[in-house]
Specification:
Layout (H helix, E strand, L loop, with lengths): L4 E7 L2 E14 L4 E5 L5 E2 L6 H10 L2 H4 L4 H7 L7 H13 L17 H9 L12 H13 L13 H14 L8 E3 L5 E3 L1 E2 H13 L5 H16 L10 H8 L5 E5 L3 E6 L4 E7 L4 H16 L4 H10 L1 E5 L5 E7 L4
Helix pairs in contact: 1-6, 1-7, 1-9, 3-6, 3-9, 4-6, 7-8, 8-9, 11-12
Length: 334
């Protein structure tokens, strides 16, 4: 099945480029509210399900034991920009567990914030693992291991208790077993498991509605989602898509981006979750489609809010001289 074109980019009067993909908007009982494309094909969710991966941090009591604030919980679900406050918060979390940056096994890369990276170069500074966009999540993994008295070295391994707990949570939320035949290695070195978009969307719907999962799991997931909605900068960064989308409807919309054109999210008031994937992996398209899916979700209940997200789903493009050259826009979703 070839996925439909869901986002297009124009230049002048013509369509210059387009992006195929799929999305699923789903209720906790599995009912598909809206969808297009192949939502049954397994896809790697990448960072879009960091909330799922952070649930054991809360469920085991590690977050409480190490004094995690809502801002800390948001960072534990983050693909952050490597800005100084992100780095400082990840470092502080590790120190409360008696660890340093050398315990992180996520790897090292320059901050995704270009301004921060340029400033570091001017200061002749090198990035550390704390600058990795996943350092908050990995700090959470390490805190959980320390709290449970587990070996911290090798915590990214597929058979380490940290990753086995994460896998069990994912299986519960997506409603299927996840074995090595659908397992890859993520950019931050942990296992990543492929599953259908419908399953990921239903998992987020379960969390925000509390249906189909234990009360403890629902409470943990809701605490994380609420922390992210209240503190979107900590789980994203200055001017990034997740922050922009959540600040468009404070406390009403949760979203999380992932690599290779994936986005997941939830509408707590409606008890709905969504997941999408752009076939060619383009972020510009996944961000645009995420706004369109949210608009589709709230269209019948809040027309004003839908219009705000419609504006994000159809954006004007300018060149370096700030001359309008075209637009990127999502198709009207059924």
């Amino acid at each position: 099945m070839e996925n439909p074109v869901l986002v297009e980019v124009t230049r002048g009067p013509l369509v210059e480029s387009f992006h195929r993909g799929a999305f699923a908007l789903v209720a906790a009982d599995g009912k598909v509210i809206a969808s297009q494309g192949d939502i049954a094909r397994p896809v790697f969710p990448r960072s879009a399900i960091k909330v799922f991966q952070a649930i054991p941090l809360v469920e085991t009591g590690a977050a409480a034991a190490f004094g995690f604030t809502p801002e800390d919980l948001s960072l534990a679900c983050a693909s952050h920009a490597g800005e100084p406050a992100h780095v400082a918060r990840a470092d502080a979390i590790l120190k409360r567990a008696g660890l340093g940056a050398d315990a992180l096994e996520c790897g090292c890369h320059w901050p995704s914030s270009q301004a921060v990276a340029f400033d570091m170069v001017r200061r002749d500074q090198e990035p550390t693992p704390l600058h990795n966009n996943c350092s908050g999540k990995h700090a959470g993994f390490l805190c959980t291991a320390v709290h449970r008295g587990e070996e911290t070295a090798g915590y990214v391994g597929v058979n380490h208790p940290v990753q086995l707990r994460t896998k069990a949570v994912m299986e519960d939320l997506v409603g299927q077993s996840l074995n090595l035949d659908v397992c890859g290695t993520d950019g931050c070195s942990i296992p990543t498991y492929a599953a259908p978009l419908q399953g990921f969307a239903q998992g987020f719907a379960k969390l925000v509605s509390g249906q189909g999962i234990s009360p403890q799991r629902a409470e943990a997931g809701q605490n994380l989602i609420q922390a992210c909605m209240a503190h979107p900068w900590e789980m994203s960064g200055t001017g990034r898509a997740c922050q922009t989308l959540m600040e468009t409807a404070p406390g009403r919309v949760f979203v999380k981006t992932g690599a290779e054109g994936v986005f997941c999210g939830a509408l707590p008031e409606l008890g709905l979750g969504f997941a999408l994937k752009i076939d060619d992996g383009a972020h510009r398209a996944s961000e645009t489609l995420a706004a369109a899916v949210i608009s589709r979700a709230v269209r019948d209940s809040d027309r004003d809010l839908a219009e705000r997200f419609d504006a994000l789903a159809q954006r004007t493009i300018h060149n370096w001289e700030e001359i309008e050259t075209g637009e990127i826009r999502a198709y009207q979703l059924l």
